[in-house]
Specification:
- It is built from four helices and no strands.
- By secondary structure, it is mostly helical.
Length: about 180
């Protein structure tokens, strides 16, 4: 008997099902993130460079405001769509704990993006609109997104995941069939 035929029946389909589930979760997370990114980038640029240049000389304030609005959108999308099967129980205490954890993760994610912007704008002296966008919405976005995904998956949305029903005794393979 070869090594591949000695595996437990159904192990390859279980692995592919897990990969498919993970890929779906990652795709939903990415879609929510894309919407939040558009809101974040659009609002930051509107506040800095739009009509009236409301926060034209305050790039960090503009970024904090834009990230805050984007986080609210991301909370709704991640809780009710991307990580819906893993969200906490629908009790006020569980929802509150999850929201606080989500906020903590996003404050850290925002600090990553704002830190990249601060280093670029103030330390390195790259003050053009392009430089601000590359540092905050390019480098900061990539680093912050990787951090957020891992934190959401392993710390924030960790509620019980519904399991498929177990195989009945007549459906499960016997030792002789293995």
């Amino acid at each position: 008997m070869t090594e591949s035929t000695e595996r437990a029946p159904g192990s390859a389909p279980r692995l592919s099902a897990r990969l498919f589930t993970w890929f779906g979760e990652l795709t939903r997370f990415g879609t929510v993130g894309l919407v939040a990114f558009i809101v974040d980038t659009g609002l930051m640029n509107l506040l800095r460079f739009g009509p009236g240049e409301i926060l034209g000389h305050k790039p960090l304030t503009a970024k904090v405001i834009s990230v805050t609005v984007a986080v609210l959108i991301a909370w709704l999308g991640n809780r009710y769509w991307a990580f819906a099967p893993k969200r906490s129980a629908e009790t006020p205490a569980a929802r509150s704990k999850e929201l606080v954890q989500f906020a903590i993760v996003n404050v850290i994610g925002m600090a990553i993006a704002v830190g990249c912007l601060a280093v670029s704008h103030y330390l390195l002296g790259f003050t053009s609109p392009l430089a601000d966008n590359i540092s905050a919405n390019g480098v900061g976005l990539v680093l912050g997104t990787a951090f957020r995904y891992l934190a959401y998956r392993y710390w924030v949305f960790t509620g019980p995941v519904p399991r498929p029903p177990a195989q009945s005794a007549e459906q499960s393979p016997t030792r002789a069939q293995r």
